[in-house]
Amino acid sequence: MRSKPERLAVPAEDLALFKDAVRGTRPIKKANRALPENQFPPPVPVQSLLDAHETLKESLSGTLDGEQMMETGEELVFLRPGLSREILKRLRRGHWVVQEHLDLHGMNTEQARHLLAQFLAACSRRNRRCIRIIHGKGLRSPNREPVLKNKVRLWLARRDDVLAFCQAPATQGGGGALLVLLKG
Predict the structure, then answer these.
(1) Furthest-apart CA pair in the chain: how many Å?
(2) What is the average pLDDT across 126-142?
(3) Which pTM value belongs to this model?
(4) In whole angstroms, how large is the CA radius of gyration of the chain?
C-alpha cells in the first residue's frame, strides 16, 4: 500500500506573495485537439504490394514453354532461360545452404499464393539466396492429387526473382518440397 505524500508547510508570507502574484489570472482553456506523438506510423510499402498483386494476377494466366519446365520422371525442375545447367546441378547437390523455408501444409490455394508472395518478398529484402518451399505431396487432398505442388511450381516459374528450382532431397522433404534459388 502506498502512503500519501507529505505536505510541505509553506510559510504564510510565501503563500501571500504567491496569491498576490497570481491574482486576476484564469486557467488556460484545455485545447480541443490531440497532442502529436513522436512516433509515426510505419510506411506502407505500396510498390511491393503492387508488385505482389501483379505477380498473383500473372500466376493465374498463361503457360510456360517447354524449355522452362523440364520433366524428368516424377521430378519437375525449372531453370531460367539463358542460365547454365550447372546452376541446377549445384542446387540439387546442396551447393547453397537453405537460408529460409516456408511450409504451406493445410492451406488452400488462395492462402498459399498470398503467403508465398509475402515470403518471397521478405526473402528478397533479407537477401536470401536459397530457400525451401514445402508444398506437401497432396496425399490428403481430394483424389490424392498434389494441388499445391503444381500451383507452387507455376507461381515460382513466373517470378523474375526465381532463377531455378528442383525437388528437395529426401532429407528435406523430397517430392513434397522444392529448393529454390533466388536472384542474389
Answers:
(1) 101
(2) 85
(3) 0.60
(4) 31
Burial of 13 (0-12, 13-18, 19+ CB in 10 A): exposed
Q: Which residue stretches of the chain are H helix?
A: 12-22, 46-59, 85-92, 109-125, 147-157
Residues near 174 by beta carbon (within 8 Å), at least 6 away in sequence? 167, 168
Question: pLDDT tier at 72 (50, 70, 90 boundaries)?
Answer: very low
Please report the domains of the chain, with CATH numbers, ordered by start residue: 48-53+75-182 (3.30.1370.110)
Contact indicator for 154, 69 with CB cutoff of 8 Å = no
Tell which wins on pLDDT, 26 or 131.
131
Residue with cell string 518451399: 133
Q: Is the Cβ–Cβ distance between 179 and 91 less than 8 Å? A: yes
